[in-house]
Design a protein that fits this description.
The protein has six helices and five strands. It has one domain: 5'-nuclease (Rossmann fold), CATH 3.40.50. Helix 1 crosses helix 2. It has a five-stranded parallel beta sheet with strand order 3-2-1-4-5. The longest helix has 12 residues. By secondary structure, it is an alpha/beta fold.
């Protein structure tokens, strides 16, 4: 079985804290099943916490969610964009040595990702 890599955008993080069933299922699967990985880019986490205080602490406490730091390559990618949250999420979804096929972006606002080269999971109920 191929590993499943999912990057939560800021809207998915907020939804997870508000009881969104689809976001909760992703978190559960990443916790309970081998080969499922969830990522929270730091810039998107900050934006989510600004919109819904407590989101960062909530997601940071979940063992199934890996917070992705803003390292130099990510900072360079973010610097080229207008939205730090979207830029860091998009950067995190790009292929890497650990994720040769990249990752899918989980979101409640799929139109944000239209025209960008990312695969999307729509978490709208």
């Amino acid at each position: 079985m191929e590993a499943v890599h999912i990057v939560l955008d800021d809207t998915a993080m907020i939804a997870a804290g508000q009881g969104n069933v689809l976001a909760s299922r992703l978190i559960h699967r990443a916790h309970a099943e081998a080969g499922w990985f969830l990522y929270a880019p730091a810039c998107a986490l900050v934006e989510a916490d600004r919109a819904r205080p407590g989101t960062a602490e909530h997601l940071g406490a979940l063992p199934a969610v890996t917070v992705l730091d803003l390292d130099l390559p990510a900072a360079l990618a973010v610097a080229r964009e207008t939205s730090w949250a979207t830029a860091h999420t998009r950067y995190a979804a790009e292929p890497t040595a650990d994720r040769p096929n990249g990752a899918v972006v989980a979101t409640t606002v799929p139109d944000t990702w239209k025209g960008l080269s990312v695969r999307v999971i729509d978490l709208r109920p």
